[in-house]
């Protein structure tokens, strides 16, 4: 697969021109509330070295969000915790999908994204009474696209913030040692949470989606950014309205509010999240940061190589 975006030198020089919408902080102020208590119910699995809990916690509008909470068997805490978000149209899957962090000594909360979980890994969380019910292109990107109050990611990002509150409330978790992580959509959600929750211990955003979204819609050749272009191909008069809405959910703007140490990764042959969009958020990130770059990879990014790098990064900051 050839390069389809900028070279590495050009990515390092690139700066996003994304415009922050007026009232961004006010728009997100309501998402920071903690919501009600989470429910953790231990479940029996075949995993002998790990304990697994089925989790429900109140997300946006107090609607229930599901997840798995996994800890090392016999751990009595306090443990550092990694809160993880799935990629686009994936869900929490099975407990056997959630082995990495607990095996390394962390508590691990892996949550659903509401209404997703039928593309590559199953999910169990409904999107109750979705607010954005106007005409849309198939997928999630244009659901509620004409009004940021009704857009799909307003609910999802609020859920992600509430997931951190849920993890911190568990008696095994040290609330001062909580990190957020994800790949693709999950990386974009991790950046959103980093911009909305001021006291995280670490952030990991691998090949993050939802960053520099207008550029993504103009440059991506595969993946969910194409939904935006598909919508605007029909609704030719709504270009500025669409990108004004999406500006409320853009990782470029969350990044400048984030202060926790962050590890990014980008892949130069990524046609789903073009590397320049990742660097657009990376250059805006206000806290300590570094980025791993995979010159000959697409949207799979570093895969296990990056998993190992992330574990080393977390170990330095969270001390499992």
UniProtKB/TrEMBL annotation:
GO BP term, pick one: polysaccharide metabolic process
Pfam families (UniProt xref): AXE1
Residues binding substrate: 88
Stretch list, region Disordered: 118-141
Catalytic center residues: 184 (nucleophile), 270 (charge relay system), 299 (charge relay system)
Residue stretches making up the Acetyl xylan esterase domain: 1-315
GO-annotated molecular function: carboxylic ester hydrolase activity
SUPFAM superfamilies: alpha/beta-Hydrolases (SSF53474)
PANTHER family: CEPHALOSPORIN-C DEACETYLASE
Protein name, entry field: Acetylxylan esterase
Organism lineage string: Bacteria, Bacillati, Actinomycetota, Actinomycetes, Micromonosporales
